[in-house]
Amino acid sequence: MNNIVAIVGRPNVGKSTFFNRLIQRREAIVDSVSGVTRDRNYGKSEWNGKEFSVIDTGGYIKGSDDIFEAEIRKQVELAIDEADAIVFLVDVEEGITPMDNEVAKLLRKVTKPVLLVVNKVDNAKREQDAFEFYNLGLGEYVTMSGMSGSGTGEVLDKIVEILPELPEVEEATEELPRFAVVGRPNAGKSSFINALIGEDRFVVTDIAGTTRDAIDTKYNRFGFEFNLVDTAGIRRKAKVKEDLEFYSVMRSVRAIEHSDVCILVIDATRGFEGQDQSIFWLAEKNRKGIVILVNKWDLVEKDTMTTVQYEKKIREEIAPFTDVPILFVSALTKQRLLKALETAVEVYENRKQRIATSKFNDTMLPIIEHNPPPAIKGKYIKIKYCMQLPTPVPQFVFFANLPQYIKDPYKRYVENKLREIYNFEGVPIEIYFRQK
Ligand code: GDP
Ligand code: GDP
């Protein structure tokens, strides 16, 4: 589980420029695998061997010039609640603005670590101009030019320095699946959980999670033992009324990162929308198992909207990762709740499975031989050996003489074949081609 760093600040100070720089190296790796960029506001970064998640809070508001101050204020408040550390970006070109003062006022009250970063310090003169930011009352600041990259190393040093020490993950003495129930506000998450587990009667133990905010609660229902990941924040706070993407994403990040399988609850009467998609890709990006529950199915006119049509539409939205179970449920009438739980357990098992190397070669090599990667510039590409890596998340490596010539379509072909033969339903997998 990672620390979460939120980048806050008013529009145009350079948040997204800096964010992109932070996640660049890792994203490059991910993108070469999936071929698609997903969420441009959430990513993972690494510095000096420490990994952390980054959220660009500004990325969730569109039309940056006419945002209400109140909106930014809410974002900062939520970032303060949900993140482990806050990077407050200001702009030396503009100097201190009233909005900067507002944000500083909120941040001065915070006990979580805050790093003040003066951006756009592109030259030595601006280094002098930065002095005025002492007036924000947040103490020391660091300067950088997010655009050229100068000073960003020092900023990263500081970020890593202020991140709270994460307690050792109590590697579950007994291996129980960790499920996170996620989704937009009002999709029916709490109703689903209540319908499934009732009035806390089935609580076995309450284990404090790995950070102060993540709680695993162990349950035993219908013969299945599992942990539900909840964030204390969700329980503690008044229900969020606003239906902003930012809220559901921010609130889901920690639970998703902490889980094995995400149960994504969507509202059947609204369909699979932008927010649902963001949360889906958040789970996929974290390589978590996924089950989609189309909830409130009791409200849908069945003759106008069949499950087949509905399912097809969702699969179009989540392509190319379509090998995901989709169930039509109702938390209200308790329709198919047991099936939902069963499916989540199955996805957990799928994600955990390990394929013996000899069997894997015996199965995959003939398929590859039958349909090898296309030759490039007269060179034949040969794959001689393959294996599943001993990683917690399914990863497969195929050793080839010229791996650099194997393109994405072939990778997808291999993934599809692999999914046809083995059951990885609901599980993101990674495939690499490497030099033998
Ligand atoms: P955001 O709204 O806070 O996410 O800001 P952006 O990252 O979109 O940047 C706003 C503008 O400032 C863009 O035109 C960037 O090119 C520019 N910018 C970002 N970082 C720097 C920097 O270090 N120096 C200068 N001179 N411009 C920058
Ligand atoms: P959450 O914000 O995702 O936790 O959503 P809630 O569980 O609070 O549900 C939001 C609203 O939808 C409440 O009024 C629920 O009673 C209602 N609701 C939840 N599940 C269902 C369902 O399966 N069918 C119907 N008809 N209403 C539901």
Automatic annotation (TrEMBL):
Q: Where does the EngA-type G domain lie? A: 3-167, 177-352
Q: Does the keyword Metal-binding apply?
A: no
- Pfam assignment, any one: KH_dom-like
Listed under GO biological process in this entry are: ribosome biogenesis
From the Swiss-Prot or TrEMBL record, give the protein name. Answer: GTPase Der
Assembly: Associates with the 50S ribosomal subunit.
Question: Which keywords does UniProt give here?
Answer: GTP-binding, Nucleotide-binding, Repeat, Ribosome biogenesis
Q: Which residues bind GTP 1?
A: 9-16, 56-60, 119-122
Binding sites annotated in the UniProt record for GTP 2: 183-190, 230-234, 295-298
Q: What GO molecular function annotations does the UniProt record carry, in alphabetical order?
A: GTP binding; ribosome binding
* Family annotation (InterPro entries): G_ENGA, GTP-bd, GTPase_Der, KH_dom-like, KH_dom-like_a/b, P-loop_NTPase, Small_GTP-bd
Q: Which family does it belong to?
A: Belongs to the TRAFAC class TrmE-Era-EngA-EngB-Septin-like GTPase superfamily. EngA (Der) GTPase family.
